Amino acid sequence: MGETPLPSRAGTWRSVFGAPIVIGILSLGGLLSALLLGEVGKYLSWIALAVPLVISVRAYMRRP
Known about the structure:
The chain is mainly alpha-helical and 64 residues long. It is built from two helices and no strands. It has helices at 12-36, 38-62. Helix 1 packs antiparallel against helix 2. The model has no long low-confidence stretch (mean pLDDT 83).
């Protein structure tokens, strides 16, 4: 009879785990820059660690 098409699974993994992976890599980069790059790394780490914080606060504020 009529077969129902399967839902497209393309992009599903990336749409679910993409943002958390990017935030994790950014956080790890910020922590490592503070440890390994000296004075310049201190400022890079502040920026890299502030971005996930801003994203989290923004997501919390958008909740109903």
